[in-house]
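Quick one:
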Amino acid sequence: MTALTLSTAGAATLRADALVVGVAKGSGSKAGSLVLAPGSEAVDKAFDGKLATVLEALGAAGAEGEATKLPAPAGLKVPVVVAVGLGSVPQKDEAYGTEALRRAAGSAARALAGSKKAGFALPVASAEDAEAIAEGALLGAYAFTAYQGGEDKVAPKGKKNGNGVKLPLGEVALLGTKPRDKAFKAAAERAVALAEEINRARDLINTPPNDLYPESFAAVATAAGKEHGIKVQVLDEKALVKGGFGGLLGVGQGSTHGPRLVKLAYTHPKAEKTLALVGKGITYDSGGISLKPAGHNETMKCDMSGAAAVFAAVVAAARLGLQVNVTGWLALAENMPSGNATRPGDVLRMYSGKTVEVLNTDAEGRLVLADALTRASEENPDAIVDVATLTGAMVLALGNRTFGIMANDDAFRTSIHEIAEEVGEASWPMPLPADLRKGMDSPTADIANMGERMGGGLVAGLFLQEFVGEGIAWAHLDIAGPAFHEGAPYGYTPKGGTGSAVRTLVRLAERTAAGDLG
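Output:
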């Protein structure tokens, strides 16, 4: 993990491999010109006041995600200056938005892969700004290199690993901060804890399915629980059979790797509220007997992204010492075709006692979540939020960067949407139309696991709602789009697992602790 320090050094005196400054697109009378952001004054002075002119000559425009490197002049202790775009200049008396700072810092950190230390002199008007920059830089510096480097498991010293891949930026020094100020210190600590747990989730998502399966995922959770004072309970196949968890067992019975239900319980002695988080953890999804078509299998190791997000959020809550009880439920299974696999037409008796006719074994996520939702409801939490890469229909509706939010309470759905936007995670509230429920009527069982094709993401939400305890506020986050990024990295978002929804869940836990649960 990249190190973070709050530095007292000035931009002109910092000794590092590079110095990052912000630039933006001008507006009004400065429209079309490049504007230097606060924090760049010392660097501009070293360029004799011509930094903007030099950058414009190199093609810099201040657009978000743009990073321009140039040699540092005499007067600076660094060899390289990186100017990173912040987008449009804010209106008068307004500061740069935290998400713009987060993305800019992430872009700069990615551009500086292979460097040991970089100073970030981006605009800091508050501790919140410092936290956003730190968070963006630490997330942008992420790289999954566990399977690179040849037979030598230890990456050699230097800027690259054994496979010639540049190592992440080693240290981020935040300039313009107040290292002794309690607010700044707390902001830095939160950024580190959150980024480390998001990156842990990313590691899990990126781990190949021959190494990450229900039992090994449960072992990771158990080890983290011991480290952070979280009580962990793992239900194996025997316990699941004894408990009647038909959804988990039905999905997992086609694999040699048996299913697991993992409960992580973080408690605070002064907590007055309890938040339950439920994560879909299909460690590999072949589709089962309803096999996925060619071209849709290669990234299905990511189908446990919801469980990874829940796991990371519970650990982050424990590390931050939030005054709220947070319980995480990881519904883990591997969905494979075999002579033992559940068939289309089979009927499963769920943990709730309801029967489900399985019309499509590739609609398996809702089955494991249903058991976990029922079990979570038995503890009567104040609210339940489930997170899942549940439907391709949600990707068709909202694209690859936005997750959908459904809920049984409009105010709760609105609160989660506002929280997601606040922390920089794109989301959109979605309805649960009652007329779509009829499509899941079954002549054989209480309900079918499939309904109308149109509005399939909403149908899945309606199915899950059937397994939530009466009177409990519940929300469903379908992160099928943003959970796994297959394109080129951007901002602080890497290629591969993203850790989508972790920031939203952690902020929800903080709001709950503060008595501000919608």
